[in-house]
Amino acid sequence: MTEYYPKPGLKITIDPRRCIANAKCTTVAPGIYVLDDETGVAVLENEERATIEQLFAGARACPTQAIIIEQYGKRVFPLILTPMWGDGNPVAKGDNNESPE
Ligand code: SF4
Fold it and tell me: N or C: which end of the chain has fewer CB within 10 A?
């Protein structure tokens, strides 16, 4: 997880495990969200000149919810964060007590 604090009270987290590097965020907010040359995943640049609209536009454009926005400690986007396969999923962890049918 990479965390950024572009504005007072605002925290942007980019989860590299969720990023599929499809450049949707970089398209809607070019120069703010960019793909890292080495890792290929999205990073935030030029935080000081990013507008709130650009920050949210990038997060909304992301199909995998890799960009998470919090304001004053409360997640504001996405409101529902879909678990990734293997993250807190009892079936993936192998501790599902239900018997298979
Ligand atoms: S839109 Fe999401 S998945 Fe695509 S590059 Fe940006 S952060 Fe990664």
Answer: C
